[in-house]
């Protein structure tokens, strides 16, 4: 079994600690804990590893968040991974800070990266892990908020949730989306 795990984010040092880069941050935490490194490849930073006999392919698209569909589509095809074995990790303004929600299919929720992925795949039938970033911004300031850096207080909260996100990835690849949802979504 092969799985594609996609962390959404923007490349470049200026975006590294922004709320929009939580997908990158989670995959970097896995990489660090596993003592593995990403390498630059086509449309993405790429890492391949094994977990419980399953091949896990992690990508951090280099196409920027809102244009992630090209990278996702390419890697699904290159590695011959069915869309049912795709997990996309993104930030979510509609969830309170640190709330995690695993979903099987559904809409993009206003997230342009998810919208682009759906356009490229022609499908909404993939799993997504939504990481709540809250919505503490004034009207018209959404862009500045998602591209803003985490506060010190927020960092304390998100670091715990990054570890939980890694457990969700492990569970998704071991027992599937529905059973993982039943366990983790009730906790959050």
Task: Describe what this molecule looks like in 3D.
By secondary structure, the protein is α/β, with parallel strands linked by helices. 37% of the residues are buried. The chain has helices spanning 22-34, 69-78, 112-121, 142-146, 152-175, 177-187, and strands at 2-7, 39-41, 44-51, 54-61, 86-92, 100-104, 127-132. It is globular, with a radius of gyration of 15 Å. It has a seven-stranded mixed sheet, with helices on both faces.
CATH topology term: Rossmann fold
Structural class: alpha/beta
Oligomer: single chain
What's the overall geometry? globular
Order of helices and strands: EHEEEHEEHEHHH
Largest sheet data: 7 strands, mixed
Termini, distance in Å?
28 Å
CATH structural class: Alpha Beta
Number of domains as seen in the coordinates: 1
Number of strand elements: 7
Rounded Rg: 15 Å
Catalogue the unreliable spans.
none
| Mean pLDDT metric | 93
CATH superfamily: Peptidyl-tRNA hydrolase
Percent of residues in helices comes to 25-40%
**CATH architectural arrangement:** 3-Layer(aba) Sandwich
